[in-house]
Amino acid sequence: MTGTETVLGAPAERREGREKVTGAARYAAEYDHPGRALAWPVPATVARGRVTAVDARPALALPGVLAVLTHENAPRLGEPEDPTLSVLQDPRVPHRGWFVALVVAETLEAARDGAAAVRVLYEAEEHHVTLSAADPEAYVPETANGGYPAVTEHGDPDGAFAASATRLECAYRVPPLHNHPMEPHTTTARWDDGRLTAHTSSQGTSAVRAELARLFALPEERITVLAEHVGGGFGSKGTPRCDVVLAAMAARHTGRPVTLALPRRTLPAVVGHRATTLHRLRLGADAEGRISALTHEVTTCSSRVKEFVEQAAVPARVMYAAPDSRTRHRVVRLDVPTPSWMRAPGEAPGMFALESALDELACATGVDPVELRVRNEPETEPDSGKPFSSRHLVECLREGARRFGWAGRDPRPRSGAAGPLLVGTGVAAATYPVLVSPCVASARALPDGGFLVRVNATDIGTGARTVCAQVAADALGVPAERVRIEIGDSRIGFAPVAGGSAGTASWGWAVHEACARLTERLAGHTGVLPEEGVEASADTSGPAGARSPWSRHAFGAHFAEVAVDTVTGEVRVTRLLGVFAAGRVLNPRTARSQFVGGMTMGLGMALTEGSTMDPAFGGFVESDLASYHVPAHADVPSVEAHWIEEDDPHLNPMGSKGIGEIGIVGSAAAVGNAVHHATGVRFRELPLTPDRVLTGLLDHAHAPGTLGV
After folding, report:
1. What residues have CB less than 8 Å from 109, skipping those under 6 apart?
2. Is the pLDDT of residue 316 over 70?
3. Conformation bin of residue 232: beta by default, left when phi > 0, alpha when psi is -120 to 50
4. N or C, which end of the chain is more exposed by having fewer CB within 10 Å?
């Protein structure tokens, strides 16, 4: 590339790609400082209670074991902002899997053997781990996640529903889901003269540093948090986790650097998960399918440790014109691990239920599912009345239908039989809010003609380095090759986490401003640059933190084709297609990867991913990748991602919207709707595993008025 006219919007290759494929990229566990020790946690084996005794002697007798930390001898911590980080501070056990000890040893094997040798006695208490919408302890919280009101109501939804020509009432269930990044939550921590350095697998080092400062009573400037390469997170690394706290505690206790990589089987209990959500929807419509009443009520659960309320009813406030509506969240506090952020929190489960219900409404009214959504397109955001900064959902639906060949579809369920296979197609819409946070960045012009741009972004596999360099090059008016980028270092300054599809919008805004200011400084500079170069910085706290008068969202449309085996109950998704409206696409190569990855994750949510809470022992049964099934290449034969270019001036200097999460939203519903079209059976609980599908097919075959499978 020799010019700058296409630097932003060009399909640039990932800058760190070669490092990753050659093994040169160093992750948190790979900082082998002299004298480094390894740690292994001991999880609680009761669902609720307290530790009455810990016998560490068998562990300490093993060769190589250096220390066993428990609530009796671990360093004392300050009050955390997040109560899940108050580890080894008292004998309580709020849920199964809560860490009650940590073994530190010379080798990983010795630490693991030592953890197995620790003997812990408990006083078990009665526990309650099963979510029910009828639970008498269910309550309406003050807010749902993200600060959204727990309840909204407009007009008279009950009266409008009763008066509607078509009335639909249905319930959906989304089970617990787990993030399971390939790199587990890992930290290597060391102390030097009262200073703490932590290499950690996190989606944001600024948040980790602030929490460590609070816990260890240190000024933030005495803490350095580094996250150069992160092997995935999907939300679970968006806030500090216990690995960084435990590693820092162990390093202080032993006086040696310590690495703690959480064993995968412990992750479901200690790093968050998507909580179960129970959905109740009521839709009223006229004979043409125009919605007159919409109610979406969600019941979910959280732990006794911390309230976390999946905001799954929030998308219903954005999507469709309904003059009379109600959305409500309820939560039950159970003796379960604390839920937390997972890719597209709220939108992923909420849109599965809403878009499945829209498909049911399309069937009830006889209106084509694409046309039904078009007919209910709002002029302004239904909940707030704000104008949309841009909304091209109808264009996504139309373009997706054209590319997918929707017009040739026979709308009748079970009309696509091919031997033992039933073939069907489905559609669902998608939305995700445009989020942006304040950030700082700096840009320096160097005497050799290059530029150094520093922003404390985190690259969790999305290509953050690459796109930030493109933003910088565009603002500087130089080829991207002349821009060097530094990220993942808390010393650079404050930056928000890589989450909420807000990373590029937030970091890029600060980078753009810093580079624009540097350009102005250089315009007034004469002569040779000094050896240290010329620098400019930016802090977007004002504009990026301001409330917008616009409703800002990305939108999309998902189309799916499935083949259902009537003999085995197996569902194969033969084709997924998505069309998205997500502002200006800054790098088509990395953007397509994000869209396809999200769609694949939605496919996993629809067909394979689901977790079970054991009511007797209070733990998740599916605790590793042998039992918690994520899609493999063979499960995704064809995934197409397309987009509509939007020119939205109400976002940020780049005109971009987040794309990391819009791909998953709607994908599961499109698959579920396609399965209904194929089989004539409406499955209202995920995942659509062969046993569940086969049972539904057999029940349908034996129902009165049916001809069998």
Report:
1. none
2. yes
3. left
4. N
Q: How far apart are CA 433 and CA 146, in angstroms?
A: 11
H or E element: which one contains 151?
strand 151-154
Tell me the longest C-alpha to C-alpha distance in the chain.
89
**HEC-encoded secondary structure of 619-665:** CECCCCCCCCCCCCHHHCCCEEEEECCCCCCCCCCCCECCCCCCCCC
- Report the relative pairing of strands 451-455 and 483-486 from DSSP bridges: parallel
Q: Is the peptide bond before 94 cis (omega within 30 degrees of 0)?
A: no
SS (H, E, C) 269-294: HHCCCECCEEEEEEEEECCCCCEEEE
- Judge whether 99 and 32 are in contact, CB under 8 Å: no
Identify the burial level of 466 via C-beta atoms within 10 angstroms of its C-beta, where 0-12 means exposed, 13-18 middle and 19 or more buried.
buried
- Indicate which residues carry an active-site annotation: 661
Burial of 550-573, coded b for 16+ CB within 10 Å and e otherwise, reads bbbbbbbbbbbbbbbbbeebbbeb
Half-sphere exposure (Cβ direction) of 84: Cα atoms closer than 13 Å: 24
CA distances to 95, 266, 470 from 124, rounded to whole Å, are 11, 20, 56
What's the full length of the chain, in residues?
Answer: 709
Question: The dihedral of CA 644, 648, 654, 658: what is its sign?
Answer: negative
Paired tokens of 631: 């899609």
Sign of the C-alpha dihedral computed for residues 96, 82, 314 and 557 taken in this order: negative
- Rg over alpha carbons for the chain, rounded to the nearest Å, is 26
pLDDT band at 2 (very low <50, low <70, confident <90, very high): very low
List residues bridging with 105 in a β-sheet: 38, 65
In whole angstroms, give the CA distance from residue 150 to residue 299: 11
262-273 pLDDT, tens digit each:
999 999 999 999
Q: Is the pTM of this model over 0.85?
A: yes
Measured N-to-C along each axis, helices 588-607 and 667-679 cross at an angle, to the nearest 10 degrees, of 50
pLDDT score of 526? 84
CA distance 342 to 184: 15
Is-contact 233 460, C-beta < 8 A? yes
Listed residue (9, 37, 2, 207) closest to 107, CA to CA: 37
pLDDT interval class at 705 (50, 70, 90): low
Average the pLDDT over 638-657 and give the result. 96
Number of H helices, E strands in the chain: 16, 24
**pLDDT tens digits, 341-390:** 999 999 999 999 999 999 999 999 999 999 999 999 999 999 999 999 99
Q: Give the pLDDT of residue 702.
A: 81
Q: Region 142-168: what's the mean pLDDT?
A: 97
Core vs surface per residue 214-251: b (16+ CB within 10 A) or e: bbbebeeeebbbbbbbbbbbbbbbbbbbbbbbbbbbbb
Over residues 419-430, the pLDDT tens digits come to 999 999 999 999
Q: What is the pLDDT of residue 708?
A: 43
